Amino acid sequence: MIVVGELINASRKAIGEAILNQDVAAIQKVAKDQEEAGANYIDVNAGIFVEEEGDYLKWLVETVQEVVDVPCAIDSPSYQAIEGALKVHKGDAPPMINSISLEKERYEALLPILAGTDLKVVALCMSDEGMPETTKERLDIAEKLINGLTGVGVKLDNIFVDPLVQPVSTNAEFGMEFINAVEAINKEFKGVHTMCGLSNISFGLPNRKFLNQTFAVMAIAKGLDGLIINPLDKKMMANMIAAESLAGRDNYCGNYLKAHRAGKFDL
Asked: Which of 15, 77, 133, 263 has the smallest set of CB atoms within 10 Å of its CB?
């Protein structure tokens, strides 16, 4: 399972204040905690600071990379901010771009940045027509994104399709439409990954953590192999490891046994 740690996001009050104050220690602690908890990428987002976003995003990348060995997921709606952050990102492991979509302006700006590179990219199933609601709508957008990306030299293995989670509180079908889309994308496009930030599924409902954890397990059973989550949520991480074993994606339950020995199921 590929885990993107989501906690360094300026929309979180403590992180926003740390960015404003250029509090290196605070940002580095959150980064290190996520890496130690099992994150494969550390997401960095300074999106609420519209005018200063480019500078803050570069500062976040540099600050995080001083203390972790995993690459960053560069999270921004601005292609200029992404370009700037890429220039300061170091290390052999390529960063992840979060995210490209089929929205014309964003798609046309980011495609040349990704062309011919080994960058990882989240391909979000959204277009200028809005958010897809059905499995078919998601599959149609995913096909266009995958074809466009591979057409400029992006490897299938570097593409993480996000079918877009929407709140089940607003439409009872949204949960299963997403899960069915994960299954369909994995079946139709062998070699791509599927990923999501899943907290939207529980929007407006009580006991959100419980719903998020359950939804993650359901999606993993259908082939989801990437999550943008809080890796400090020990129950989420434990459920994820168990679900992968039960889904047949953990040979001889090696990861499960390793997690058991490390006490990760002692919740």
From this structure: 263
* Interatomic CA distance for residues 124 and 114, integer angstroms: 15
| CATH no. of 2-229 | 3.20.20.20
This prediction's pTM: 0.97
What are phi and psi for residue 231, nearest 5 degrees? Answer: -70, -10
- For the chain, the average pLDDT equals 97
Q: How far is CA 63 from CA 48, 72, 73, 130, 228, in A?
A: 19, 11, 14, 35, 20
- Token pair, residue 232, equals 């400090």
| Residue closest to 78 by CA, chosen among 42, 111, 53, 115 | 53
pLDDT digits 0-9 by tens, 217-256: 999 999 999 999 999 999 999 999 999 999 999 999 999 9
Distance CA 180, CA 60 (A): 36
Q: Where are the domains of the chain?
A: 2-229, 233-267
Q: Give DSSP secondary structure letters for 40-67.
A: SEEEEE-TT-TTTHHHHHHHHHHHHHTT
List the chain residues with pLDDT less than 50: none
Predicted pLDDT of residue 192: 98
